[in-house]
Amino acid sequence: MKKTDRWKRERLDINREKRRVRRIIVLKRRQRIHTQHWIHASSIAPLEHCDALRRSVHRLSSPPTLDLRHNYRHSITFFQDLRKVTQTLRGHLYIDMTSCCHISPAAALLLVAELDRWREHSRNGRLSPVDTENWDPQVRRQLHQLGFFDLLGAKPEELEKLNHDSDTNVAYMKMCRGHASEGTAARELRLWLESCGIEISDTAALYDGLVEAMTNVEHHAYRRGRQSGNRKPTGRWWMTAVADPTANSFRVLFLDHGLGIPTTLPSKGYWNDIKGWLQGIGIGRADHATLIKAAIEAKRSRTGSSHRGNGLKEDIQGYIEDHNADGRLRIYSNYGCYEYHKRPGTSGKSKCRGLPKFLGGTFLEWTIHETAT
Amino acid sequence: MNSKYINIAKDFSVVPAGRFNEDGPFNGTTFRQRFLLPAFRHYQVVQVDLEGTEGFGSSFLEEAFGGLVREEGLTSQEILDKLTLLPKSGSGRIERYKRLIARYIMEARPNG
Question: Are strands A55-61 and A93-96 parallel, antiparallel or unpaired?
Answer without folding.
Answer: parallel
